[in-house]
Amino acid sequence: MKKAFVIGHPIAHSRSPLIHQSWIAEHGLDASYEAIEVAPADLPGFISRLRGGEFVGGNVTIPHKEEVMTLIDEIDPLAAKIGAVNTLVADNGKIIGSNSDYAGFLANLDAAAPGWDEELQSAVVIGAGGASRAILVALIDRGVPRIDLVNRTLGRAQALAAEFGPTVAPGSLSDIGSLMMGAGLLVNTSSVGMKGTGFDGLDLSRLAPGAVVTDIVYTPLITPLLAQARAKGFASVDGLGMLLYQAVPGFRAWFGIEPAVTDELRNRVLAALGQ
């Protein structure tokens, strides 16, 4: 049996097992995928288990995405650029790390808002935490000429923007009104939106006509930001698709099958989330 995992601390909330177990059942594989609680102090020991052949690979989530990079043998260039690893593959005692958040973010937008990047001149990204790194790399690689990175703490936005060069301009969340002017894409990578929280005084009408608004938060599925975007007539893309699509590269690497992201799978995860 081929065994895979997702590790984190905490991990009980993860929906990754539901996604991967659904694909395992769909394809009739002799395989398993389980959530394993691993405290930071226990991470080196767990990586030794992976290197020893107990698993074919797995996913890594908070708080291990950066620390695990110091414990593995090879990091693909994209993950190195992002500065975080969320997917591990064991290959004859060698552990290779990659980052599928990049692919998940782009695949979700491509599926839900086809053509979103055509003639896109500027984007606004809210949040300068770990989640924003893969999204900044994705937008830069898609050729977005200007990305305004806004954060409540300007210093964090400045530090992150400095890593990505002139394409990314840091700004304060308090200035987002002017920075949104004419932008064709607005991305929320912050935790605002969880438990129904929202941004005070955010006027989406300043976005370009036909702009796309997306939120990586998926509980609730329709965050106040997305509800406001819909009310203004903008295209909105929820965060659940990113969760589903980021799971594809790992499953393919571990089990040799390209799984499909379907409405049935989406609805199964939504039911598990109580939505």
Key descriptive features of the protein:
275 residues, alpha/beta, six-stranded parallel sheet, 11 helices, 13 strands
What do these coordinates show?
36% of the residues lie in helices and 22% in strands. It has helices at residues 16-26, 43-51, 77-82, 101-112, 130-141, 154-164, 176-179, 224-231, 240-246, 248-255, 263-272, and strands at residues 2-8, 31-37, 57-60, 74-75, 87-91, 94-98, 122-126, 146-151, 168-172, 185-188, 192-195, 212-215, 235-237. The strands form two sheets. The chain has a six-stranded mixed beta sheet.
Q: Uncertain runs with pLDDT below 50, 5 residues or more?
A: none
- The helix-and-strand class reads alpha/beta
Largest sheet composition: 6 strands, mixed
Q: How does the overall form come out from the CA principal axes?
A: globular
How many β-strand runs? Answer: 13
Widest sheet, order of strands? 2-1-3-5-6-4
End-to-end gap: 33 Å
Estimate the helix proportion, in percent.
25-40%
Spell the H/E element sequence.
Answer: EHEHEEHEEHEHEHEHEEEHEHHH
What is the tally of helical segments? Answer: 11
Rounded to an integer in angstroms, the radius of gyration calculated over CA atoms is 19 Å
Outline:
This protein has 275 residues and is α/β, with parallel strands linked by helices. It has helices spanning 16-26, 43-51, 77-82, 101-112, 130-141, 154-164, 176-179, 224-231, 240-246, 248-255, 263-272; strands at 2-8, 31-37, 57-60, 74-75, 87-91, 94-98, 122-126, 146-151, 168-172, 185-188, 192-195, 212-215, 235-237.
